[in-house]
Amino acid sequence: MRERLTNWAGNVVFGTDRVHRPESLAELREVVAGADRLRVLGSGHSFNRLADTDGALISLAGLPRTVEIAADRGAVRVDGGIRYGELAGVLAAEGLALHNMASLPHISVAGAVATATHGSGVRHGNLATAVSGLEILRADGSIAVLDRAHPDFAGAVAGLGALGVVVALTLDVVPAFELRQYVYENLPGNALDDHLDEILSAGYSVSLFTRWTGEDIDQVWLKRAEPLAGDLFGARPADGPRHPVPGMPAENCTEQGGVSGPWHARLPHFRMEFTPSSGEELQSEWHVPRAAGRAALAAVAGLRERVAAVLQVCEIRTIAADDLWLSPNHDRDSLALHFTWIADTEAVLPVVADLEAVLGPLGARPHWGKIFTAEPSGLRAAYPRFADFAALVARFDPKGVFRNPWLDGLLG
C-alpha cells in the first residue's frame, strides 16, 4: 500500500511511501524477511524523526488483538499493536488495572514503552517499568523472549525500536482501583517554592500546568483516592471542568470535581472516546533529577518571556527511578517539564536550544520522542549504560535493518 504519512502533529513527513500493514504474525515475518531498512510506526506521537526511515514503515495496528491474563492475575500479555485505551477497557472489565497511564490513552503500548513514556506520580515508575516480558521479532526471523531475569532485559525494554519488532509484551497488573480528580487554580509561586515536594506528593498523580506568563501556577491537576476539601496551599478549587490549555473545550477531558471513578477514566487527562486528530502543536520534554527540581523551575523562569511567546502550556510532573538503560529516569527520581508549543518549528527551535542550555547543567535528559536539539554525544554521555545499549543493538540487529539516519547518528 503506497501512501505519504506524517506524524500526529504533521511536523514530520516520513521519508518513504512504503507502508506495510500485516494482519498476522506470518505476514509480519514475511515483511521483515524482505526488508533492508524497516521502522515500526506506532500511533505517530513522536515529534522528531525517531520513527522515520529511508526504507519502509510497518504498522502493527492490524494484528489480531491479544489480551491474555495470567492465571495468578498479576500480569497480562498483549500484542504489539494494542493501544492503552483498548487494553484499559478489557482490564477494567476483569477487575484489574495498570499502575500508570499517560495523558492520552490513544497511544500504542509498545511505542510508549520503547520511548519510556510516563504518567505521573512520585511513587510510580514510567509506563515501561510495568513490562515484565518482551517478545522481539529480529531481522533473521527469530523471536527473542526476554524477562526480568535476562541480562539484556533492562536494555531492551526502552529500546527505541532498534532491536526488532516487539510483537508481544507482558505487563504487571494490579487490582482495579478508583480515583478522584481535582483541579485547582492559581497556585501562588511562593507556595511552589516552599512546598514543592508536598504538592507533588499530594496525590497518586499530580500535574502542574503553567503558561510561564507570571509566577503563579495556572492549574494543579490532582488525582487521588481520598476526598479533598478547601484550598491547596493557596490554590482555589476550579468552579467547573477545565482543559489544561486555557480556552480549549473541557468536555474532552476526564471527569473532575472530585467524583470517584475507575482508574482508567481518571489517570489520563483526556477521554478515550475523544480521538485526537492531527494536533496544532509541537512538544518537548526534559527530565531532571527531582533534587534539582527547584533549580530547574528557576532556570525556566529566567527564560519566561522567551518561553511564553511560543508556548501553549507547560506541564510539570514527577516519575520514580528505574533501572532501564535508556529511561530518562534511569537511577534517579525525576521531575519532568513538558512543553506544548505552538505549531511553528522555526520559532520554537531557538527556545528549545535556550532551555537545553540552562537545563543541561542540571542533568536534563530529553524525552526520546519529543523535539530537542542536543548533540548525540551529549545524549550518550547522559546515560551510564549507553555503551551497553549500543552493543546490544549491534548484537540483535548486526545488519542495521531496524536503524534509520536518526538512530545512526545517536549510536555513532
TrEMBL record:
Recorded superkingdom: Bacteria
Keyword Oxidoreductase: yes
Any matching Pfam family: ALO
Keywords attached to this entry: Oxidoreductase
PROSITE patterns reported in the protein's UniProt record: FAD_PCMH
Keyword Oxidoreductase assigned: yes
Gene3D superfamilies the record matches: 3.30.465.10, 3.30.70.2520, 3.30.70.2530, Uridine Diphospho-n-acetylenolpyruvylglucosamine Reductase, domain 2, Vanillyl-alcohol Oxidase, Chain A, domain 4
Domain (FAD-binding PCMH-type) ranges: 12-176
Gene Ontology CC annotation, any one: membrane
Molecular function GO terms recorded: D-arabinono-1,4-lactone oxidase activity; FAD binding; L-gulono-1,4-lactone dehydrogenase activity
Protein's name according to its UniProt entry: FAD-binding protein
